[in-house]
């Protein structure tokens, strides 16, 4: 079973992008700072999201905000000029607001600060 649950803060603003395919698909890559149990230590984890989950993150989350995500670990390799590189990312499949309501209100001007969605299927419409 490949299941990951992380709670942390975004290390920078999320940049939403779209693939170059005939039917563009939204995606975003972002860093997450996750505290360890030992005081003062944290891990920086590379994450990405696709489709409506990516659009949701791009619209409602900013640098420093706390986020709770559930997803899976994805390991990929790339061979460039005979040098093999391995990349490990967490693919976010579900995200929720976390932290105090005031932390999230800064990016939610429509009053949806208490909104906790996302388990978006590609065919579903946004719930708002």
TrEMBL record:
Under SUPFAM superfamilies, the record lists: Nucleic acid-binding proteins
Q: Which InterPro entries match?
A: NA-bd_OB-fold (IPR012340), Primosome_PriB/ssb (IPR000424), ssDNA-bd (IPR011344)
Give the UniProt keywords, A-Z: DNA damage, DNA recombination, DNA repair, DNA replication, DNA-binding
Keyword DNA repair part of the UniProt annotation = yes
Per the UniProt entry, what are the Gene Ontology biological process annotations, in alphabetical order?
A: DNA recombination; DNA repair; DNA replication
**Where would I look for the motif Important for interaction with partner proteins in this sequence?**
123-128
**A GO molecular-function descriptor:** single-stranded DNA binding
Which spans does this entry mark as compositional bias, Polar residues?
102-119
Region Disordered: start and end of each range? 100-128
- Quaternary structure per UniProt? Homotetramer.
Q: What does this protein do?
A: Plays an important role in DNA replication, recombination and repair. Binds to ssDNA and to an array of partner proteins to recruit them to their sites of action during DNA metabolism.
Q: What is this protein called?
A: Single-stranded DNA-binding protein
Q: Which organism is it from?
A: Cellulosilyticum lentocellum (strain ATCC 49066 / DSM 5427 / NCIMB 11756 / RHM5)
* Organism lineage: Bacteria, Bacillati, Bacillota, Clostridia, Lachnospirales
């Amino acid at each position: 079973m490949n299941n990951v649950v992380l709670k942390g803060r975004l290390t920078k603003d999320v940049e939403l992008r779209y693939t170059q395919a005939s039917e563009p698909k939204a995606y975003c890559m972002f860093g997450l700072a996750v505290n360890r149990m030992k005081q003062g230590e944290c891990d920086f984890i590379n994450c990405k999201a696709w489709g409506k989950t990516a659009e949701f993150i791009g619209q409602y989350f900013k640098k420093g905000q706390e986020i709770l995500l559930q997803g899976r670990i994805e390991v990929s390799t790339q061979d460039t000029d005979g040098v093999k590189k391995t990349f490990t990312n967490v693919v976010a499949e579900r995200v929720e607001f976390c932290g105090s309501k005031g932390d999230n209100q800064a990016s939610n001007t429509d009053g949806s600060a208490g909104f906790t969605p996302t388990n978006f299927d590609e065919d579903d419409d946004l719930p708002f």
